[in-house]
Amino acid sequence: MAEMTSEHQKKIDKLYQWFNNTTSNVLGILVILGISMLIKPLLAMLGFDMADCSWYPILCGVYKYTAIILGIIGIIFFCVAALLSIWATDDKREQDKADMKEILQEIKAEEESKPKRTIFKPEEIKIPLKGLTPQQVAVVHDILHHIPEQNGHLKTSELVQILRALKGQGDLDDSNLPQVIAWVEYVTDKKVDERNLKYDYESKYSDKGVSKWGDIIRDKFDKIEIS
Prior knowledge:
Layout (H helix, E strand, L loop, with lengths): L5 H31 L2 H7 L10 H29 L6 H23 L20 H12 L3 E2 L2 E2 L1 H13 L8 H12 L5 H10 L3 H20 L1
Antiparallel strand pairs: 1-2
């Protein structure tokens, strides 16, 4: 079967909508006619019997044949609308597609608005530690290796305290934080939640935690010197 053109689809959708609306209107008129039949018993309760009127049989005939004609029209239009619905555009499906497209566009716009992460090649990664002996550097690397993972990343809160402790005692150059993050990932072979780390590193760290890790690092350094 040849693919339906957009113009033909619009005509079918228009016909389907017309038959569907007309069927609804016919059904509405039939409901009104049915409700209006309650007028006779209501008037009878008030002492007025419509059956005594000469025009009552004519009115009954009009009601009867009107209901029959509308019923036939309604059935025919309903069948035609049902047949056209096979080819007519599914409004809900089209709306769902439009909603999904809008959601995807919003996600794409949000992703594009995010700052792009700096990607370093292995040869571009520099150790940001300064003034440390190779043995002390190895100690720091070992500490980083033992940071637990959380949701597929190194635990941000713990990593922040360690880096802050190193910076506080003059052992870390954090002037290029993306470089520091790349170094940590290279050393540990684990991912760092860059966005959370950047925020926590500047404004969400514990002085108590930093002090604790400073003591741990210095203690490990002292053991190296003693040995």
